[in-house]
UniProtKB/TrEMBL annotation:
<dbReference type="InterPro" id="IPR026325">
    <property type="entry name" value="DUF932"/>
</dbReference>
<dbReference type="Pfam" id="PF06067">
    <property type="entry name" value="DUF932"/>
</dbReference>
<protein>
    <submittedName>
        <fullName>DUF945 domain-containing protein</fullName>
    </submittedName>
</protein>
Length: 396
């Protein structure tokens, strides 16, 4: 099995630390033509490195995945090898084939030395030699300039809530001083307020365009949620001249900014939709729900085996399958709700549990995870929230 190195993950809550990180990251990240390394005799060795006697390159999982994709070889097959050095021999054999050489003739490794052992750097990804590089240092400065050039009278000042750097992918989250959403119920002593903002994302390894999405931050439990803004044209591809790129980035920001007020209504709309396991099952949303937290469905079934035994050892009718999914969805909050979301979910000040409460079960659970997994859960939770709001009539 080929051993990969953990991609650097860093969390930020203030600008000064973020500025220092992206400036250092820019200095420690480089691109190297793969063909040049091969011509100099570079090979895979020890099921861990690529290089020669004088230098070694390790791989993050994303870097190895990118190489396997270029070679047309499944990463899973490489991960399943057990014999010592077998993974290295397979990769070296693939690199020696003409079609692989052709595939890699115009490709470059993106190498990051930040946080690496002094003897080697880490391959974080692969880009073409014509790829227009865009560092996170430039990205942060450009976002600041774009914000300063736009009219923020409706949103108010955008303040840094949090930021994450994962394998050179930067997630920058800013929230509005003016726009927020509120959940109401029968009473209570404080306001359940959700801040509305934006998430800006950039990748230095060519695996994604610059993106701008909506970010929701619930104050009562500090949960984060990312709502897609793709229909507003919030993807800006790294290409063309710098001036044209900034013009497109500015337009995308303006388009998404105009929709922030609408996202504030999502909080109320989600809180107005009852959490009904039966209806969610009937709408065939079980897969989307259980995909948010990997292996969550098997966890629910294992913890409540006595409830699900009757559905395991016999052929199920369509009605039985719906009932099984309904039960699984109903038990999900019992298995995954954290202290805060469980208290809100069962609050006497709520008329009933809502879809907003279910979403917050996921997003509070996400806070227990490392940044990469946390952000994925928040993103998938946002996709569910978006679907529910866009199809709210189906819940009536």
């Amino acid at each position: 099995m080929f051993q990969t190195e953990v991609a650097s993950e860093k969390e930020f809550s203030d600008w000064s630390e973020l500025y220092a990180w992206v400036a250092d990251e820019e200095k420690s990240t480089s691109r190297v033509p793969i063909q040049g390394l091969l011509k100099n005799g570079a090979k895979f060795q020890e099921d861990k490195y690529f290089g020669g006697s004088e230098y070694k390159l390790a791989f993050t999982e994303e870097g190895l995945k990118a190489l396997c994709y270029k070679l047309g070889f499944p990463l899973l097959a490489l991960e399943m090898t057990k014999e010592s050095e077998l993974a290295s021999r397979i990769l070296n054999d693939l690199l020696g084939q003409d079609n692989a050489k052709a595939q890699l003739s115009n490709s470059e490794f993106v190498i990051n030395e930040k946080g690496s052992d002094s003897s080697h750097g880490k391959v974080c990804g692969i880009v073409s030699s014509s790829y227009v590089g865009y560092s996170n240092n430039s990205f942060v400065r450009d976002i600041e300039n774009v914000i300063s050039e736009n009219d923020l009278s409706s949103a108010g000042k955008l303040t840094l809530k949090e930021a994450y750097s994962i394998n050179t992918r930067l997630h920058l989250r800013l929230t509005s001083m003016h726009i927020s959403g509120t959940v109401s119920g029968r009473g209570g002593i404080s306001e359940d307020k959700t801040e509305i903002g934006l998430e800006f994302c950039n990748s230095m390894v060519g695996d994604a365009a610059v993106s701008i999405d909506y970010f929701l931050h619930r104050l009562v439990c500090a949960n984060g949620l990312v709502l897609p803004a793709g229909r507003n044209g919030a993807r800006v591809i790294h290409s063309g001249k710098a001036k044209n790129f900034l013009t497109r980035l500015n337009k995308a920001f303006g388009d998404v900014l105009a929709g922030m007020g609408e996202k504030a209504t999502y909080v109320k709309e989600l809180s107005d939709i009852e959490f009904s396991p039966q209806r969610l099952s009937e709408l065939d949303l079980s897969k989307m729900i259980f995909d948010i937290i990997p292996k969550s469905k098997s966890t629910v079934i294992d913890k409540h085996r006595n409830v699900f035994n009757d559905f395991i050892f016999r052929k199920l009718s369509p009605e039985d399958k719906l009932k099984r999914e309904e039960l699984a969805i109903g038990y999900l909050p019992l298995c995954f709700a954290g202290e805060l979301s469980k208290a809100v979910f069962n609050s006497k000040y709520r008329d009933n549990a809502s879809m907003f409460d279910l979403i917050n079960v996921f997003t509070e659970h996400a806070k227990e995870k490392q940044p990469a997994e946390r952000l994925e859960i928040q993103k998938r939770s946002g996709q569910l929230a978006e679907w529910v709001v866009n199809n709210k009539k189906k819940f009536n």
